[in-house]
Design a protein that fits this description.
- The protein has 250 residues and is mainly alpha-helical.
- The chain is 68% helix and 0% strand.
- It has 10 helices and no strands.
- Helix 1 crosses helix 3, helix 5 packs parallel to helix 7 and helix 8 packs across helix 9.
- The relative contact order is 0.10.
Amino acid sequence: MLTIGVIAFIGGTIYGSFLNALLWRLPIGRSLNGRSECPHCHHPLGWLDLLPVASYIFLSGRCRYCRRSISPRYLGVELAAGFLAVGIAFFHIPGTPVFLTLQILVAFALLALAVFDLLYMILPDAIILPLVLIVSAYHVLYTSAPAEFFLTGLLIGAFFAILHLVSQGKWIGLGDAKLGFLIGLMFGYPLGVLVIIAGIWIGAAWALALLAVRKASMKTSLPLGTFLASAGIACILFYQYIFYVAELFR
């Protein structure tokens, strides 16, 4: 079991390293092609500088070349991805290998969306739209009632889209509507609805905590996508337990 955990953690941190590159390049429109470089001095990084988690620790969070500090966010993302992989490895997800592959793919994509929204308040179409196509293909090919999943996604997405239009984007972003559609499409009814409710509750609890310590006001924008994506990840990790609870709502 320890070996499985170590392998999963290493694999997860490798994904986290890729996600860090995506978080840096995608918002500024840079291609993923080309060598990684220091965000400060732009010196190309060698393989010793790119070891997930280990390089950050050994270099004390500084660039080897210019010695400027590197944001601890890089370490945090790699660790989050590593622990997510361990969680998936140890919390068995029932189903076929295809279903397991889909769950893993969606979990890591939701992690990317959660971090993007937390850092930049954006939910990139470059992540959501391909995932919508993949999940749609899975339901068409492997589920007996794909219409249920599509209908759940459409209703959740439409609800968020209406809130976006009514508030002229002040209450909720259009990206949240797309994420809501994806969650409904992925989990169906009632599981998808429960994920949305849980995400909203998490966001409300976070907002109350910030208000309590005076770190936010009633006008402060919160990354709803981060909370929705986090609830989706929790649903995947504890799927076999949450599924039985969701069946009570049918």
